[in-house]
Amino acid sequence: MKPDNFLQKTISWLFTALFFWVPLFFTPLNSELFEFNKIILVYSFTALITGAWTARMILQKKLIFKRSFLDIPLVLFLISQFSSTLLSIDPHTSIFGYYSRFNGGLLSTISYLLMYWAFVANCDIKDVKKIVKFSLISAILISIYGILEHFGHSFSCLMFGTGFNVECWVQKVQERVFATLGQPNWLAAYLTILIPVSIANSLNPAKKSGITQLLNYLIIFIFYLCLLFTQSRSGFLGFVLSFAVFWVILFIINHHQIKSIIRPFLILNSIFLILVVVFGSPFSQINKYLYYKSYFSPNQTNTQQLVPITSLDGGISESGDIRKIVWKGAWRVFKHYPVFGSGVETFAYSYYNFRPIEHNLVSEWDFLYNKAHNEYLNYLSTTGIFGLGTYLLFICSFLYINLKSIFNFKFLISKQIPNPKSQLGQLEIRSIRNLSLALFSGWMSLLVTNFFGFSVVVTSLYFYLIPAFTIVLSKPEDQSVHKSLSPGTYHLTPYLIIPVFFAFYILHFTLNLWRADFFYNQGQKLSKTGQFYESYQKLHQAVKISPNEPIFLSEISVAAGNLALIADQQNQASSSSELTQLAINYSDKSLKISPANLNLYKTQVKLFYTLSTIKPEYLNKTIEAITQAIVLSPTDPKLIYNLGLLYGKAGQGELAIKTIEKSVEMKPNYFEARNTLAIFYEDIGENQKAVEQLKFLIKMSPENKETLENKIKQLEQ
């Protein structure tokens, strides 16, 4: 086999492996089980694919690149991401992505776009078919995984050593399955992409045997059942759109042969209807008409029938209400950073600067929101009108070119099919057109799921690569750019070292990212159990590998601070002093690298509070740190409340009361703050005010009524 052919086949199989393994891959060894491992795999495959592509160019002595209609929108989008990163409030986060989410940073975007251009330049129709085939196999495995979770058996728990059950998960995985994707909505978004593809596979005119058709319908059945078990409303809506788009366009382009597709259309709709009747849907409005759901699915509760929260109760807020508040905050961020946004992937920081005060009245008021839960608003707030504009330009460009190609598909594809006018040629054209339509329909579902959520590694992979697939499926083979890299002949071996070195360098970099997180995860767990010496050792290894990762520096500062406290308790003053300074240096360095990261300030507050038990003067440093955190998140009542507690500890009682009163104004149903206020009021002799707080607590916590009423009686005597 010639070297160039070998490299081309290597690229083809690397893409196939990418789409097979990324949805499946996760490990229990890292701080984030799912997304981190998937993005590491994406970086690794990007390095190998780009390296092989570069090697092909060197061997052929020409630029191997195929122009497409989407090149300009994608280049403009990439420029917008670079611009927002350069002007970001936190460039480190913009480059690497938010730690724990990872997807969406500049590096991940570069990876997806490189793979887009690599695929268009190096792959053909056979490669698309092969990738689709292995994608469906991967999705079958994942769907079976999810279905078993619904019935109380998780392969994850078997792998984690707790048995073939669901006891390893804190989440109620039986109610909302997530398999190897990590979150029900992400699994649903993934399945909605591939359900139309599986339907197109069942319509393949070249595969009409009874057993084959039965297997095709079984695959669709498995995918749809797993989708229902995610209980994802956004996923279900995405499926409805993709299903409608697929069949409407299919009926239009096959209006002369409409009878041939009526039968599968009716069969599939019957299957879907029966499954909804038996197992229910994600919508309570539909489920109230389905009388058999409780019989067939006894372990499933309707997770969508949530109790709206008020300012007094402690119920669970409806997710739609929470989203509206977060979207309002995202709009405020955009108004402050209208052109380039606050910076790629910085929503976790910029949102809290503009967080609506009504967020304090929902059940998830103290959760961290690192995404806007709307991909479009997320881009608008973090990359501004330039970022969102180029993103929408890419979407609209693909919609236009793909719809145009689908309705003109027979002419385009006939240039790539041998004997296109023969019966086999016509069947092949129909099969490829159905596949292209299915990929487009699946891609359309992402426009819905991203509206109610955000993209993750798997969905981003399909979002950027499906356009490449459809271009390859419909594009004639005469669009290559053949530009000589150098005149004359030269010895090639030295030049091949360049892509090999590049690939291995990126792989080494990626492996170190994984290793550093592995040690960070171990250190974090040890720190939580109070094993600070062992924790420090593991975290030191993480910092040694990635010395400029602020999350690692922040975590190791806590371990060092606790070691300083232990040394002080053991009367080792010199060691305690050295460890104290080391802890402060680590914390300061983390904030220097990531100055807008609210969590780093919260960690510094913990650090200085720990150190204040060694030297009381560090209490002032604690107050300074939490004051700076409040500057970054001015509507967070918990920060205000904790500042009040610190004032109380510092002997500033009057200031403590005023500060905690402010936290109650921000969050009237703040139980801990009102309880603390009652204690402070009692201490200064303001018994009537203390009674008022206790009466309010009775409304909030009726189960403690007797205890609180006894306390009120004592105060009124």
TrEMBL record:
InterPro entries: O-antigen_ligase-rel_domated (IPR007016), TPR-like_helical_dom_sf (IPR011990), TPR_rpt (IPR019734), WaaL-like (IPR051533)
Spans through the membrane: 12-29, 41-59, 71-89, 101-119, 131-148, 186-202, 214-230, 236-253, 265-283, 376-401, 437-465, 492-514
Topology versus the membrane: Multi-pass membrane protein
Chief location category: membrane
Domain of life: Bacteria
Any one GO cellular component localisation term in the record: membrane
Matching SMART domains: TPR (SM00028)
Pfam (any one): TPR_8
Keywords from the UniProt entry: Membrane, TPR repeat, Transmembrane, Transmembrane helix
Localization of this protein: Membrane
SUPFAM superfamilies reported for this sequence: TPR-like
TPR repeat ranges, renumbered to this chain: 516-549, 637-670, 671-704
Domain O-antigen ligase-related: 219-391
Cited PANTHER family: LIPOPOLYSACCHARIDE BIOSYNTHESIS PROTEIN PA4999-RELATED, TEICHURONIC ACID BIOSYNTHESIS PROTEIN TUAE
Protein name (database record): O-antigen ligase-related domain-containing protein
Lineage, opening ranks: Bacteria, Candidatus Shapironibacteriota
